[in-house]
């Protein structure tokens, strides 16, 4: 098993084409005469560290880094920053804590039974949830520079045949 996976593993070099870690749609290949690679889909440019099998996206600060494990890219890392599970936990708390609090308040203090007012706490709870979810999504998009514009362009191309 170990042997088999070793044979199938490929190393990261300038000759190959690799999946783009940003858009996960395009392929990255070497740019002519440069120590860099570019994606044919989202046009993102990466600098290369062959010794460490690393790809770096310098267009943002701090740069995002991926490491080639022989088969695919590892999770994106901010250079010099460890994004551990603590951040994920904080994000989940940020989404669910206010929603739960407002939900509890809405449940424990039911308003007078007026048709519109009765629904207000539920709408409020849902809005709180959506707003906090949107903030977390926005932070993820900002941090990982997800190329939404490139996806939209691709959807347009696909629609127009
Ligand atoms: Zn790409």
Biggest sheet: strand arrangement: 1-2-3-4-5-6-7
Shape: elongated
Q: Which sequence of SSEs, written as H and E, runs from N to C? A: HEEEEEEEHHH
Helix content: 40-55%
Number of strands: 7
Largest sheet: 7 strands, antiparallel
Look at the structure and give the mean pLDDT.
Answer: 84
The number of helical elements comes to 4
What is the domain total for the residues? 2
Bound molecules: zinc ion
Q: Bin the strand percentage.
A: 15-25%
The computed structural class is: alpha+beta
Transmembrane segments: 85-107, 119-141
Keywords: Membrane, Transmembrane, Transmembrane helix
SSE inventory with pairings:
Blueprint: H1 2-8, E1 18-19, E2 27-30, E3 36-39, E4 45-49, E5 54-57, E6 64-67, E7 77-78, H2 85-108, H3 115-144, H4 148-159
Keywords: Membrane, Transmembrane, Transmembrane helix
Transmembrane segments: 85-107, 119-141
Provide a short characterization of the protein structure.
The chain crosses the membrane at residues 85-107, 119-141. The protein has 161 residues and is of the alpha+beta class.
């Amino acid at each position: 098993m170990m042997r088999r996976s070793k044979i199938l593993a490929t190393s990261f070099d300038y000759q190959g084409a690799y999946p783009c870690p940003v858009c996960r749609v395009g392929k990255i290949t070497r740019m002519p005469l440069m120590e860099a690679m570019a994606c044919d889909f989202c046009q993102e440019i990466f600098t290369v560290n062959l010794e460490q099998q690393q790809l770096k996206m310098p267009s943002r600060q701090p740069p995002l880094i991926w490491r080639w494990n022989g088969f695919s890219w590892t999770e994106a890392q901010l250079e010099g920053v460890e994004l551990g599970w603590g951040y994920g936990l904080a994000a989940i708390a940020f989404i669910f804590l206010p929603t739960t609090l407002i939900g509890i308040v809405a449940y424990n203090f039911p308003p007078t039974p007026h048709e519109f007012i009765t629904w207000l706490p539920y709408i409020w709870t849902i809005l709180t949830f959506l707003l906090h979810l949107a903030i977390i999504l926005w932070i993820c998009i900002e941090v990982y520079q997800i190329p939404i514009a490139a996806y939209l362009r691709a959807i347009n191309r696909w629609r127009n045949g």
